[in-house]
Design goal:
There is one protein chain. The protein has a single domain, classed as Peptide Methionine Sulfoxide Reductase, Chain A (2-Layer Sandwich). With about 210 residues, the chain is α+β, with helices and mostly antiparallel strands. The protein is globular. The relative contact order is 0.21. The N terminus and C terminus are likely disordered. It has a six-stranded mixed beta sheet, with helices on one face. It has a two-stranded antiparallel ribbon with strand order 4-5. The protein is built from six helices and eight strands.
């Protein structure tokens, strides 16, 4: 989702990402606008941090403006830090597939462009196998009624997004896009994946 008139405020954390806590793993997913993805995964039990960012492109220092202008090849993604003792990678993949449309290429709803492609960026071979197996099973079961077009690729580099994208839904619950798109998506997640709900962030509008 492009923010009309948004100012580039810079990456408020200066690209610095604190080290992971003990017994934590990472997963990286692109399922359209990263504001939506962040709001969903932040509510999964065992998830300690969700960072919006860019991955899968060629530009070594991508900005939001460049990605939205289709000049870098990056996808909007979220990097999820989680405790595998509380939620498995397979369950995260199931949440990923269950909270967006993986059958539309380079778009989610009215958000259209290569940056909105459905993509799983695996961190190791075990993650690749799990993601491929879940995708294959969903296709075999005809869950979506159309072939899944989700790309599964190794993660090259993750670039954290600018600071003003962090906790976007929590900070802007009444913004039109949040109320019309993110709120209903979070509500759908809460209903469909009730068994995976964690304490999460404070509830915002639309929940």
């Amino acid at each position: 989702m492009t923010v009309p008139g948004a100012r580039h405020l810079g990456r408020l954390d200066g690209w610095y990402t604190p080290p992971m806590g003990p017994n934590r793993e990472l997963a990286t997913f692109g399922s359209g606008c990263f504001w939506c993805s962040e709001a969903v995964f932040a509510r999964v039990r065992g998830v300690s941090k969700v960072t919006p960012g860019y991955a899968g492109g060629a530009e070594p220092d991508p900005t939001y403006e460049q990605v939205c202008a289709h000049r870098t090849g990056h996808a909007e993604v979220v990097q999820v830090e989680f405790d595998p003792a509380q939620v498995s990678y397979e369950q995260l993949v199931e949440v990923f597939f269950g909270t967006h449309d993986p059958t539309t290429r380079d778009r989610q709803g009215d958000d259209v462009g290569r940056q909105y492609r459905s993509i799983i960026l695996h961190h190791d071979e075990a993650q690749r196998r799990t993601a491929a197996a879940v995708k294959a099973q969903l296709d075999a079961d005809g869950v979506f009624g159309r072939p899944i077009v989700t790309e599964i690729e190794p993660l090259p580099t993750f670039h954290p997004a600018e600071g003003y994208h962090r906790d976007y839904f929590a900070r802007n619950p009444d913004a039109p896009y949040c109320a019309a798109v993110i709120g209903p998506k979070v509500a759908k997640f809460r209903k469909r994946f009730a068994a995976l709900l964690g304490p999460g962030p404070p509830q915002g509008a639309g929940e």
